[in-house]
Write a structure and sequence with these properties.
single chain, 132 residues, alpha+beta, 5-stranded antiparallel beta sheet, globular
C-alpha cells in the first residue's frame, strides 16, 4: 500500500455564482516523487456546462498543465503536492484552480488516480451523454 496526496483541478468562471466543474485530478506519491495527472480532454462537457466560456483556451491551459506535470523534474521528489501545483498554477484570481490537498491510501498510484478521476470528474458523464 502507498500513501498519496491528491488535488482536483477545477474551473470556476464566476466566483460569485460559485458554480464549478471538476476538470482533472493530480496524484502525488511523496515516497517516490511520482506524479500522475488525468483530465478531461474534450471541451464537449465543459461547453455544455459553461457555454459562454472560452473553452478551447481552457483546454489548452489544462494540456499545458499536463505537460508540465509530466516533465521529468528531479526536484519534484522534494516538494509537496501543494507546492508543486502552486508553482504551475499560482493562486491568482483565475478561473482554474486546484482544490485543497487530501491524502489517501491505495495499492498503486494509477489505481488511485483512476478511482479518483471516475468519482470526481466523470461520475455523471455517462448519464449526460445518454440525454438523461
Amino acid at each position: 500500500m502507498i500513501t498519496f496526496h491528491y488535488q482536483v483541478l477545477r474551473y470556476q468562471p464566476d466566483k460569485e455564482g460559485e458554480e464549478f466543474m471538476n476538470l482533472g485530478v493530480v496524484v502525488f506519491a511523496p515516497g517516490t516523487g511520482e506524479v500522475r495527472f488525468k483530465y478531461l480532454d474534450s471541451v464537449k462537457r465543459l461547453s455544455a456546462f459553461f457555454p459562454a466560456g472560452n473553452n478551447v483556451y481552457i483546454k489548452g491551459l489544462v494540456r499545458s498543465l499536463a505537460e508540465n506535470l509530466s516533465a521529468d523534474d528531479k526536484q519534484r521528489a522534494h516538494k509537496g503536492l501543494r507546492e508543486l501545483t502552486a508553482s504551475l498554477l499560482p493562486s491568482v484570481d483565475s478561473a482554474l484552480y486546484f482544490s485543497e490537498s487530501r491524502s489517501g491510501l491505495d495499492t498503486d498510484l494509477e489505481t488511485a488516480l483512476d478511482a479518483l478521476y471516475d468519482r470526481m470528474v466523470t461520475r455523471y458523464e455517462q448519464a449526460q451523454d445518454q440525454g438523461i
